[in-house]
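To the team - glutamine complex, inputs and output below.
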Amino acid sequence: MKYILVTGGVISGVGKGVISSSFGAILKCCGIEVTSIKIDPYINLDAGTFSPYEHGEVYVLDDGGEVDLDLGNYERFLNVTLHRQNNITTGKIYQQVIDRERHGDYLGKTVQVVPHITDAIQEWVEKVAQKPVSESGKTPEVCIIELGGIIGDIESMAFVEAFRQFQFRVKRENFCVAHVSLVPQPRTTGEHKTKPTQSSVRELRGLGLSPDIIVCRSEKPIGLSVKEKISNFCHVAPQQIISIPDLNSVYEVPVFMENHSMAEYLSDRLHLGITPLPPMRKYMKPWIDLGEKMRHLKYEVTVAIVGKYTRLEDSYTSITKALHHAGNKIGYKVNIKFIEASNLEATMLSENPASYHDAWHNLCVCDCVVVPGGFGKRGVEGKIGTCQWCRANNKPFLGICLGFQAAVVEFARNVLKLEDAHSTEVCPDTKYPVVIDMPEHNTGEMGGTMRLGKRATIFKPSATNSKIRRLYGNKDKIDERHRHRYEVNPDYIEQFEKYGMQFVGVDVDQERMEVLELDNHPYYVAVQYHPEYLSRPMNPSPPFMGLILAAKDRLKSYFARGCKLSPREPQSDYYDSEDELNELTVRQLGICSDHEDSSSAYSSSSISSSKIEL
Ligand code: GLN
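Output:
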């Protein structure tokens, strides 16, 4: 097993997760089996009890693990299925060590950070790295380990010490370190400043880890002289100093990194035995194509996300990614308007009329609407109002989890005329509880008790005309990931269906409603599960595909062609032949097939340095 440890310097939030994933994406393109581990040095056992405002969305895995959103990056970039153990927290390590101590495993010894915690970390990493993560079931060859936060954080000290020991345990040819650091460019001088990077590398070295690669994050590309300076002060060859400026899209990062011959370097450093590589445009083709396509999307679609946590866009990372995946595939640049659900509520009209009208204006001008998941009372009426407006105005709509439950409540109130119908999550005493709690998932404990992870949805045999079923390729059964504690009350299903709200998908026991769809609407679909977690850049999630197609009035023709995009649709407008595409790709990315100095790539005018979404 080969390990690449990715550490951070100066500040967090500069895209360490995407950069770590990109190392993996490059190696995958060379035929290497890759897995990854994300370390979050907080005490929480997992991300399950976090508000989205803490660290962004809680990402859910197949096995029900509630983990950091960076694991979503790994799954999307590497097309793998990770396990809950791939996310290590201080809490998990301590819990294991304390359990062992209670069990008497330490034979009367004093249990200490060194060696007991550091040993536990190393054992965990070695064990989890072996777990297959791809469909092939093969044991991974390379494990990328991302250490959250930055070097110098008190919380991560035990992990840094564990890896200091680990490098000797697994030997030099099996372990390397990439340090991701910010290189600021203060406006006053306009120069790139290397001092913060120098300090953080010094700190890392002081703790016993020497970086093999330094990835410099900056708004604009850094020049050769800056690289040389970092090289001199940080004891890393200039070729191993990589500049990643702000890019159009995160999916351009692997190609940018490979411009620095990363595969060749890692193969050499870690003895990976990657045979001589063909020109980069061949093995990196999927990523080059994706970046190219995204830069040339001619048409646009505007999507409203009516959420409760819109102050922090990371709260909806997987949803925005899933929308972009679908948009890219169909040929549309996706513009997202985040609308705070509570601003749509009637009370806002008197409290803050400007925000109220602004929110409704934004909703009205969008081509389609997503009402995503969430917890608690705040903003629920705004979500319900959105459902009503989309239903009555034929606006393409996708409800997810709480969005699904809001659609049910709205329909009960306004179509079934069940006055003040509600979910018991918001109104425990409602006269018409159309959404109720699942007793086995409402234990009073908050962490890890929801209905979580991958579960099957069966499409009802009667649902032959269902749009959503057709989008899923007319399958009888699909698997998607879940995270909820409440469900639709089965006592009301007959009434709902009589009035046109069809529950076309149910769980295997046919007790839990999973998918609803409205008759006589261009696209009104809501799902109890979270389809966004399984969306992949090259394989978008079907409910999101349907939403974008419907927003542009292309869904009918898509179905008429047997769920195929038309060759005349925007997606294939851009290039006529593969050769032409390759030509353009090589020229516009400034890619040099034999790994010349990659600085040419940065001067390429086609790479805009607009705001990155790293
Ligand atoms: N709060 C709702 C429930 O627990 C919805 C959860 C969600 O949107 N993830 O069922």
